[in-house]
Automatic annotation (TrEMBL):
Its main location: endoplasmic reticulum. PANTHER family: 3-EPI-6-DEOXOCATHASTERONE 23-MONOOXYGENASE CYP90C1 (PTHR24286:SF254), CYTOCHROME P450 26 (PTHR24286). GO terms for molecular function: 22alpha-hydroxysteroid 23-monooxygenase activity; heme binding; iron ion binding; oxidoreductase activity, acting on paired donors, with incorporation or reduction of molecular oxygen, NAD(P)H as one donor, and incorporation of one atom of oxygen. It holds the Pfam family p450. One of its GO terms (cellular component) is endoplasmic reticulum membrane. Its cofactor is heme. One of its GO terms (biological process) is sterol metabolic process. It catalyses: 3-epi-6-deoxocathasterone + reduced [NADPH--hemoprotein reductase] + O2 = 6-deoxotyphasterol + oxidized [NADPH--hemoprotein reductase] + H2O + H(+); (22S,24R)-22-hydroxy-5alpha-ergostan-3-one + reduced [NADPH--hemoprotein reductase] + O2 = 3-dehydro-6-deoxoteasterone + oxidized [NADPH--hemoprotein reductase] + H2O + H(+). It is found in: Endoplasmic reticulum membrane. Belongs to the cytochrome P450 family. This is 22alpha-hydroxysteroid 23-monooxygenase. It comes from Raphanus sativus (Radish).
Length: 449
């Protein structure tokens, strides 16, 4: 797929008047052709950075047709310009707010606790499937405060039907995958709209209290007249945005957690160090009798290393697609107007010039990397620049809580399984494990393990 399939004539045609630009044939930025569409692939961290920063709104997101059909042209994932910036700022500010952090920490702890207890009562757990139930529950709580129950179950069924169409043949008539997914989207929006309408009535009375979920955030914004295109059908607008926000978090979170379990199962020394760090924290906390807060979890430096290393190797989002709205030159390479560019994260994350032994799970490498000048541009699991994932901090918190409870209260054995990377990152056998409760009373040192 990465071979240059361009003919010389096209090559000269594209660059005839821009001879100062670097040729594309070799090196870290090159042209290729995917299913008949010519594209430029960047495996260069600095070029990726410029594409992501997107100064002057030169690049717009470019998704396969099935995705744009399902999302609609005004989706948060595809809009560009001031509306995208406004929404991004609103959602990011909410997801990083101290009020949310405090509340969501308790919610995540409760969901993880119940999930792990149920796992320990099952003879075999397929992590990839089971973890999805938990992460979906947390996501929906965060977006619209729906708790487990019938509404959540229906929402989950419709959502699963909806996302089946994200990668499919973009033909829309009764019976096709796309058609079924669009129908599921209608039902989803109906369910969400009911929540939004009920909240609209309640919101009028308590606008001074902090926002509890994304519905609160968006409703307050439309009620304050935020944005211009929302006024005609503000409740439809809010409902649509909530459904769109379910997409980026739904698959990524459970995949990250599943792969963390996989990598730890295969690396007992890293697991022992993780147990040690988390048991120390658990003992400190039980002595003080205080609840954990967001920064307690973030202070677990080896745990954060494990999360970074998991995200580096997992490459859940292996890159982002953009289309150039005008000719752009980056580091001497020309990206012509109208062309698509794939900023490949996986190529940078697995580049041996940047990461020594890139295929080795080595959480300790992050002690050496953190603080290096180019570390942020060479590590982009959450993207960067204008569209940097607003769920970044929340994702790290959720994975930290999951790992903390898993390794301090349980041990597990994993059956043999392998990672499949196409079309999305998955475990071939859904990662079967057996979970046993353990009574740990002291941190286990790496040597004891
Ligand atoms: C490990 C988990 C996650 C990973 C690896 C991840 C990765 C990403 C990446 C790479 C982007 C940038 C896409 C682009 O530039 O086109 C993105 C955007 C986004 N993510 Fe995440 N994400 C994760 C979890 C979440 C969660 C839990 C949420 C929701 C609470 C979320 C909400 C979003 C939203 C709304 C955007 C679009 C931002 C915009 O375009 O303005 N993500 N994510």
């Amino acid at each position: 797929m990465y071979n240059d399939t361009f003919s010389d004539s096209l090559f000269h045609f594209s660059y005839g008047n821009l001879s100062a630009c670097k040729p594309y044939r070799y090196g870290k930025v090159f042209k290729t052709n995917i299913i008949g569409t010519p594209i430029i692939i960047s495996t260069d961290a600095e070029v990726n950075k410029v594409v992501l920063q997107n100064h002057g709104n030169t690049f717009v997101p470019a998704y396969p047709k099935s995705i744009t059909e399902l999302l609609g042209e005004n989706s948060i994932l595809s809009i560009n310009g001031p509306h995208q910036k406004r929404l991004h700022t609103l959602v990011s500010a909410f997801l990083r707010s101290p009020h949310l952090k405090e509340r969501i920490t308790r919610d995540i702890e409760a969901s993880v606790g119940l999930t792990l207890t149920s796992w320990s009562q099952l003879p075999l757990v397929h992590v990839q499937d089971e973890i999805k139930k938990m992460t979906f529950e947390i996501l929906v709580k965060l977006l619209m405060s729906i708790s487990p129950g019938e509404d959540l179950d229906i929402l989950k069924l419709e959502f699963e039907e909806f996302i089946k169409g994200l990668i499919c043949i973009p033909i829309r008539f009764p019976g096709t995958r796309l058609y079924k997914s669009l129908k599921a989207k209608e039902s989803l929006i109906k369910i969400v709209k009911k929540v939004v309408e009920e909240r609209q009535e309640a919101t009028i009375e308590r606008t001074n209290s902090p926002a509890n979920d994304a519905v609160d955030v968006l409703l307050r914004d439309v009620n304050d007249g935020g944005g211009s295109d929302k006024q005609s059908q503000p409740l439809d607008f809010v409902s649509g945005k909530i459904v769109e926000m379910m997409i980026p978090g739904e698959e990524t979170m459970p995949t990250a957690m599943t792969l963390a379990v996989k990598f730890l199962s295969d690396n007992p020394v890293a697991l022992a160090k993780l147990v040690e760090e988390n048991m120390e924290m658990k003992m400190r906390k039980s002595e003080s009798g205080k609840e954990y807060n967001w920064s307690d979890y973030m202070s677990l430096s080896f745990t954060q290393n494990v999360i970074n290393e998991t995200l580096r190797m997992a490459n859940i989002i292996n890159g982002v697609w953009r289309k150039a709205l005008k000719d752009v030159e980056i580091k001497g390479y020309l990206i012509p107007k109208g062309w698509c560019v794939l900023a490949s994260f996986i190529s940078v994350h697995m580049d041996e010039d940047i990461y020594e032994n890139p295929y080795q799970f080595d959480p300790w490498r992050w002690d050496r990397i953190n603080g290096m000048s180019n570390s942020n541009i060479c590590f982009t699991p959450f993207g960067g620049g204008q569209r940097l994932c607003p769920g970044l901090e929340l994702s790290k918190l959720e994975i930290s809580i999951f790992l903390h409870q898993l390794v301090t209260r349980y041990s597990w054995t994993a059956e043999k399984d392998e990672i499949v990377s196409f079309p999305t990152v998955k475990m071939k056998r859904r990662l079967p494990i057996r979970v046993t409760p353990v009574e740990r009373t002291s941190p286990i040192s790496v040597e004891d393990h």
